[in-house]
Design a protein that fits this description.
alpha/beta; Rossmann fold; five-stranded parallel β-sheet; 5 helices; 5 strands; about 20% strand; globular
């Protein structure tokens, strides 16, 4: 399974990449929403793990534009910057599988990944 991990923090990106790779996922990374849009336009992913607070194009905008372009892959969003009400309002109707609050424990992320991709 191919996972795109969109996270601008290098340390978090490295930890999550190692954890996902160690659990059999092929992990690709993006550092901002612009890179997310480029990568989902170039290849198919089974899951997107998307930080909402990123430079250039934030996760909200990247997700909205992906959906407008017909990209319907499962998405897990992560944030530590936006209040729950803002997140809920801005992602409503955008097909988000799971919302996680940072800091996210590795076991919590792995459980969310399993939930988002379903049995299989």
């Amino acid at each position: 399974m191919k996972v795109l991990l969109a996270e601008d923090d290098l340390d978090i990106r490295r930890i999550y990449t190692e954890m996902l790779s160690g659990n059999g996922f092929e992990v690709f990374s993006a550092v901002d929403g612009e890179e997310v849009l480029t990568k989902v336009g170039e290849q198919a992913f089974d899951l997107l793990i998307l930080d909402l607070f990123m430079p250039r194009v934030d996760g909200f905008e990247a997700l909205s534009r992906m959906r407008e372009q017909g990209q319907m892959i499962p998405v897990i969003v992560m944030t530590g910057h936006f209040p729950d009400e803002v997140v809920d309002e801005r992602i409503q109707g955008l097909g988000v599988s799971v919302i996680l609050r940072k800091p996210v424990m590795i076991s919590t992320l792995l459980d969310a990944v399993k939930k988002a991709i379903g049995p299989g």
